[in-house]
Amino acid sequence: MDRARLADYLRSRREALQPEDVGLPRGPRRRTRGLRREEVAVLSDMSIDYYTRLEQPRGPHPSEQMLGALARGLRLSMEERDHLFRLGGYAAPRRAADNGHVNPGMMRIFDGLQDAPAVVYSHLGEALLQTRLAVALLGDDSGHAGLARSKHYRWFTDPASRLLVPAADQAEQSRMIVADLHDSYTRSGPSSRAAQIVDALLSASAEFAELWRGHPVAPTYCGPVRLQHPSVGLLELNCQRLIDPDLSQQLVVYTASPGSESHEKLQLLAAIGDLRWDMDTP
């Protein structure tokens, strides 16, 4: 680990970012060139003291997870992320489509959607980023580990993951999920993480195995969505999906028709904020 060069690199990347680049207001009294340290800390989900010590440099040796969080917070490109890891004393992470790094272009679009329920998913249905309203609407997906990071995997192995979807819509949801996994498996191959999820589900779920044999094809659009929320009841939403050019990630945004009952319910959820509701509650 090269502490001095790491500190200098973090400082240079922070000063190169403008508030507008990450969806923050500039404000009339900003004198700092680029972002403030506390802003980078919040964007990277770490304490201000921890980040400040890294820049000084007098901080601890950051873990690979911390460096990954910094790469996301500082909106680093893949090349910049690799350089950050090498300065931190690690080999650059492999550049696979399922490594969890959010592409900078996707991050910039996501930053402008903080007032909307928006999620960045990997091609395996892993939530990489969620706005606060998305957490209130869909639940917090940040606590899952292993194969369960994939909402596709949880759909067929955890009954609680289906509570948000009305019973009448669940068969079509199952078919869509299998179609997504078929597409990912075909592109990634038998040695990929997609293959691990598919193999596990073929053993764990008869429903998945039957649908898999039918070779369903995923549509290119995201249609209307109905969600049965435990606090505000049924919401009827529209879904917009932006797919990254390399097909590794997609940004999903949920909207409701202005003036509709579902629009009012979304506004209520926005007022509630980061609602910690229990998925086990009917």
In terms of topology, how is this protein built?
Blueprint: H1 3-16, H2 37-43, H3 48-55, H4 64-73, H5 78-87, H6 104-111, E1 118-122, E2 127-130, H7 132-138, H8 151-157, H9 170-188, H10 193-204, H11 206-213, E3 225-229, E4 233-243, E5 249-255, H12 261-272
Antiparallel strand pairs: 1-2, 1-5, 3-4, 4-5
Helix pairs in contact: 2-3, 2-4, 4-5, 7-12, 9-10, 9-11, 10-11
In short:
With 282 residues, the chain is of the alpha+beta class. Helix content is 43%, strand content 11%. The chain has 2 domains: 3-87, lambda repressor-like DNA-binding domains (434 Repressor (Amino-terminal Domain)); 104-272, 2-Layer Sandwich (Beta-Lactamase), CATH 3.30.450.
Descriptive keywords:
282 residues; alpha+beta; Beta-Lactamase; five-stranded antiparallel β-sheet
Describe the structure.
With 282 residues, this protein is of the alpha+beta class. It has two domains: 3-87, Orthogonal Bundle (434 Repressor (Amino-terminal Domain)), CATH 1.10.260; 104-272, Beta-Lactamase (2-Layer Sandwich). The chain contains twelve helices and five strands. The chain has helices at 3-16, 37-43, 48-55, 64-73, 78-87, 104-111, 132-138, 151-157, 170-188, 193-204, 206-213, 261-272; strands at 118-122, 127-130, 225-229, 233-243, 249-255. It starts with a helix and ends in a 10-residue tail after the last helix. The relative contact order is 0.11. The model is unreliable at 275-282 (pLDDT under 50).
